[in-house]
Description:
The structure holds two protein chains of two kinds.
Chain A: E1 4-5, E2 8-12, E3 15-19, E4 28-33, E5 36-46, E6 49-54, E7 66-69, E8 75-77, E9 86-87, E10 104-106, E11 123-124, H1 129-132, E12 137-138, E13 142-147, H2 153-163, E14 168-176, H3 178-190, E15 197-203, H4 208-227, E16 231-237, H5 239-252, E17 257-259, E18 262-263, H6 266-274, E19 278-279, E20 285-293, H7 302-310, E21 313-318, E22 321-322, E23 328-329, H8 332-335, H9 343-365, H10 372-389, H11 397-411, H12 421-427
Parallel strand pairs in A: 9-15, 13-20, 13-21, 14-15, 14-16, 16-20
Antiparallel strand pairs in A: 1-7, 2-3, 3-6, 4-5, 4-7, 5-6, 8-10, 11-12, 17-18, 19-20, 21-22, 21-23
Chain B: E1 7-15, E2 18-22, E3 31-37, E4 40-50, E5 53-58, E6 70-77, E7 79-82, E8 90-91, H1 98-105, E9 124-128, E10 135-137, E11 141-147, E12 150-155, E13 163-169, E14 173-175, E15 182-186, E16 191-194, E17 198-201, E18 211-213, E19 218-219, H2 224-229, E20 232-233, E21 237-241, H3 248-258, E22 263-269, H4 273-282, E23 299-304, H5 310-328, E24 333-339, H6 341-354, H7 368-376, E25 380-383, E26 389-398, H8 408-416, E27 419-420, H9 425-429, E28 442-443, H10 451-474, H11 481-498, H12 512-527, H13 535-553, H14 560-580
Parallel strand pairs in B: 8-23, 21-26, 21-27, 22-23, 22-24, 24-26
Antiparallel strand pairs in B: 1-2, 1-6, 2-5, 3-4, 3-6, 4-5, 7-17, 9-11, 9-14, 10-13, 11-12, 13-15, 15-16, 18-25, 19-20, 25-26, 27-28
Amino acid sequence: MRKVYHKISHIAGNVITVEAEGVAYNELAEVESARGVSLAQVIRLAENKVSLQVFAGSRGISTGDQVRFLGHEMQVSGSDDLLGRVFNGRGVPRDNRPDVNSELVEIGKPSVNPAKRVIPRNMIRTNIPMIDLFNTLVESQKLPIFSVAGEPYNELLARIALQAEVDVIVLGGMGLKYDDYLIFKRTLDEQGALSRTVMFIHTASDPVVECLMVPDLSLAVAEAYALRGKRVLCLLTDMTNFSDALKEIAITMEQIPSNRGYPGDLYSQLASRYEKAVDFDGAGSITILAVTTMPGDDVTHPVPDNTGYITEGQFYLRNGRIEPFGSLSRLKQQVNGRTRPDHRAIMDAMIRLYSDYKSTLEKQSMGFKMSAWDSKLLKYGARFEAEMMSLAVNIPLEAGLDLGWKILADCFDKTEVGIKTDLLEQYWPGN
Amino acid sequence: MAENNPVREKVVGVNGNLITVRYTNKVMQNEVAYAHVGGARLKCEVIRVRGDVADLQVFESTNGLKVGDEVEFTGELLSVELGPGLLTQVYDGLQNPLKLLAEQSGFFLQRGVYLRALDREKKWPFTPMARVGENAVAGDRLGSVPEGIITHYIMLPFSWKGSWRIDSIVPAGDYTIDDVIAVVVDEQGTRRNVTMTQFWPVKIPIPDYAEKLLPEKTMVTQMRTIDTFFPVAVGGTFCTPGPFGAGKTVLQHSISRYAEADVVVVAACGERAGEVVEILREYPELEDPRTGRSLMDRSIIICNTSSMPVAAREASVYTAVTLAEYYRQMGLNTLLLADSTSRWAQALREMSGRLEEIPGEESFPAYLESRISDFYERAGLVKLRTGELGSVTIGGAVSPAGGNFEEPVTQATLKVVGAFLGLSRERSDARRYPAIHPLDSWSKYHSLVDAEKLSLARSILARGSEVNQMMKVIGEEGTSIDDFIIYLKSEYLDYVFLQQNTFDPVDACTSADRQRYIFDKVCAVLESRFPFTDKEEARRWFLELRQLFLDWNYIAWDDPEFKQQESAIDKKLADVAAEVE
């Protein structure tokens, strides 16, 4: 029987301090108040003063309430029974079905030994040309979608999840609107993908502290599956909410903020999550696709900025389209040389011409005269946006490449596209 | 190591990776201690002492530590083991061999597992150099073993003070690193055994040399922009700041592969694990053209990636520079590449925050600048006591928040380095790699090429950029043909000389001779006058010349086609020169 402590001496924000003995750092506790029982986690020890962050928030906790330490850290089941289930940010089912308590694993395990990683080599097909053709997603990659509120980033995540050839999908929702959660659930259900999905959902109305656990829970489960040889896709939305929760706790704990109020360890905190993306030497893999909304559409904001330094590229989602400029998959070179011989050539040529189209647009708006070449570019740009960039397009890579050739041939002469002669001879339509 | 009984004290506070210990005995600043939790011993370092408590940073996760847990103080500073077998190794920030760790604990870096840095089984063919009866001081060479292509000298440990007489030394033969190879006696009659290894505290520079010299010789990195425009000296320092995606890591990898150094230490400090994996998996397969052996044979990799504990990240750059200094003592030129020093500075900031120190700019600690300059000052060209030269060259990547070079880490670094290779987003977006900005960057070292020609090339780049800015406002129509040709010249110089394709086997590395040769050819164009009156005609001519030159860059130096391509270029130039006359 564990000892119960009564002496809560300090309550501020979502953090309480209790006087207790023999408590371990990072240990879990249960706080029993008039509002019910809430989980809490030890975040600082100083002599006999133990500070805990309370998952349900400190509202309604009185100085006389009970704190019972559980003697273990946060754990989650890594068993196959999780598939098709939905949990909240504490790992408690939110689908009115029984708890899963088998094969418990601790969350936030140590990092993977770099010597046990392998160089990523498999493409993940999404059937979105802007990804497959231009910025290929690679198994074990960590990639954020930089976007702003109002953009269809959650729809994009759901779509990639459905079309990606992976064994298991783990969805971690942080500060998710309840509607978005329902949309995710319905979309996955309709497409029959729910049975290979595990969801950890923290909605916008749930206590902030619960948000902090979502990435760790999701990634611990993903890791358990990957170690059993599964290819796991982990979706995290929205990491800015996670960072804001970190900020809230750090300020409550009177930590010195570094940049716009965020704690100095924001980089390390984000990195320890993103770095869980891995291709194990002799087991499965974890691919992480995360959403980072940019406050004020500012990429130099600390959250997207730190994220960019950690992840292997980024997708910019703007005006409902994945931007060709700025978007980058750092790992695409590992795979796009082995898809089809014309892949890299089409990728480079189409982007270069699209960039020329953009400067022609500028010229046009400034009232300069349009040459014959400019008119060709304008025609090309419009078709590129409609047939390649639109998220409504849903075609496999090979069909996308063929479409690329067709668009080029419809708009330009062979000599104008700057592609090597042998490829032109092989692929130019109507040869 | 543990000569005296370790002192045991108790934990009184835990805050992230910082623990507070109440001590009863004495403690030393930067002393190493071990915190006991469950069955594990977690390595820590004393970073502050206040009254009767000491604050220690823990190099591992502190989960599960309790108030009252035991901490064992060792009385030693944080040190690395130096000896034969360091080359080809992959270590974490505390010199744990990662491959052995993987064999022992599998996929994950289990906390509290520390392994010996060097292989104790392997036998090295030792040749004695010192004789019985001779006197030796710290750093003197007692013998040598071959380590790959280099001669690894076994030296009297750097920390042994005073003069020692050699009482005995083993004959030539095969010995392990722990075998006693010599016995020495000092003036007081103290006898000590010398083995092939020794320990040295990482945060203190190895002081054993006659004098520090001015770095004057260019270190050839085979990157044209660097060697010709912004050179790095043997024993010098440089930094490569840049926003994310500008190609810092690709540039560092490329330098580590092609730079003409004897030993390369790569410190992957707080960056992506995937990038280290590329080095780990590819370097053993790649050939070092200078020696014909695997590239790994001259490399040591220190990797403390972003998800590994932050305190060890702080230690990792010191570990790396200490290893580089050790090989300098053998009369070698070593190159240390740290990617990225910003992560190291952030580690300082995290600890400073936990210590609740008064923050400086962007809450970096006030001592940030002095730490950064201490680190870069460990570079240098030195004359050893044997008269040989040895050097440590340091290149640090900097990852400024928001790509803004005004931030404290970049600014503090700029004060102490000899060359600034600033990477620009503008150039990387335009796919102009390496994205080193040709106008903002600078170097205080000597270039490979003639200074007069270099200043001509620089002025063309500057003028070309001005014309380009002007054309954005007044359009091409409003630009004079002379200005337009200057712009074309600068674009041409950029495309054929500054830009270099890292993924092409020939273009990726340009030897010093070839750089001088093609730079002369490039300058011939820059100096020429042209007869063009029509801009379109001028543009076409330059595009054609550019194509010839680019193809030339892709042809190997010793290939017969090299001369053929050159004559095609010469002809094109001669044709236009004839027109002028």
